Amino acid sequence: MTRNEHEEVESYALAVMIGLLSAGAVPPDLIPSKAFDIAEAFQREKLKRIGDKPPFDS
Predict the structure, then answer these.
(1) CA angle at residue 25 from 47 to 32, to 5 degrees?
(2) N or C: which end of the chain has fewer CB within 10 A?
(3) Which ranges of 1-58 would DSSP assign to H, the alpha helix?
(4) Record's superkingdom (predicted)?
(5) Residue 39: what pLDDT?
(6) Is residue 35 within 8 Å of 17, Cβ to Cβ?
């Protein structure tokens, strides 16, 4: 995993945690692991559908 991918998963997990806390759908002790499960699944799906981010044009 590249540093950029690591940071993306971390950001997605934080957003998921906020959503799960807001919804109250998951017990609080399960939220961190569930958030990272969802974030990692999102990252895999994103790469499958749109691939890696292209470099900036020079």
Answers:
(1) 55
(2) C
(3) 3-23, 31-50
(4) Bacteria
(5) 93
(6) yes
Q: Is the pLDDT of residue 16 over 90?
A: yes
Closest CA to 16 of 37, 1, 2: 37
Distance CA 58, CA 55 (A): 9
Do 6 and 36 touch, CB atoms closer than 8 A? Answer: no
Global model pTM greater than 0.85: no
Give the mean pLDDT of 36-44: 93
Answer whether residue 58 shows pLDDT above 80: no
pLDDT, residue 37, reads: 95
Q: What angle do CA 57, 46, 31 make, to 5 degrees?
A: 130
Contacts of 40 (CB under 8 A, 6+ apart): 9
